[in-house]
Amino acid sequence: MTWEGTESMTHKEQMFPTATPRRVFRFERLLVGDRWERDVRVDVDATGRIVALDPGGAPDGCEPVAGWAVPGVPNVHSHSFQRAMAGLAEGRGPDSFWSWRDVMYSFLERLTPDDVEAITAQLYVEMLKAGFTCVGEFHYLHHPPGGGRYDDRAEMSRRILAAARTAGIGLVHMPVVYERGGFGGEMGKKK
After folding, report:
1. Where does 10-71 sit in CATH, by number?
2. pLDDT tens digit string along 49-101?
3. CA gap 104, 106 in Å, rounded
């Protein structure tokens, strides 16, 4: 099976329109390696790639970036659909992974591929705004509500890829299988 690329110009084209092939920034303070540097010149090409970095070499005319800045970071563990169920499983009183899982399964019975794509795109935009530049998506939604199979077995995976393209975030897509409920434990009635 081949996968479409996840490189997206949507977000990048908005930040770096083709009319402006290169942008030059002056960061007031930037973490470079393990040191905080002042007045750092950063040259960025039209695709959003850093092509030059010069600590202490920011001339007048650069776009200023005030304050302290760090390079973007990866989010290495995501289950994007869970963003939409935040707050549904939390409550006072006793609960466990198993009670949370029951709420999750009930929630999944309502999610369509369109829902998953929209939720994922929104989450990925939130990640970009928070400084994440790529995400590792542990993906285990392979079946439609009620069980069975999609005509395209990769339907839900394709929706995750589309959401990443829409948001403009880097993606490591990791389809997984959820078979066990702990060490040696069975999943129970819902799979």
Report:
1. 2.30.40.10
2. 889 999 987 778 899 999 999 988 999 999 999 999 998 888 777 878 888 88
3. 5
> Which is nearest to 13 in space by CA: 46, 51, 50, 42?
46
Tell me the C-alpha distance between 20 and 26, whole Å: 17
HSE-CB at 51 with a 13 A cutoff on CA atoms is 10
Residue 80 contacts residue 123 (beta carbons within 8 Å)? yes
DSSP state letters, 14-53 = HHS-TTS-EEEEEEEEEEETTEEEEEEEEEEETTS-EEEE
Residues 6+ apart with CB under 8 A from 66: 28
What's the pLDDT tens digit per position in 132-144? Answer: 999 999 998 989 9
Which pLDDT tens digit goes with each residue over 26-51?
999 999 999 999 999 999 988 778 89
| Nearest by Cα to 172 from 122, 126, 135, 128 | 135
Give, in order, the Cα–Cα distances in Å from 37 to each of 32, 67, 115. Answer: 7, 12, 43
* Strand 50-55 with 35-45, pairing: antiparallel
Domain with CATH 2.30.40.10 in the chain: 10-71
Residues 6+ apart with CB under 8 A from 33: none
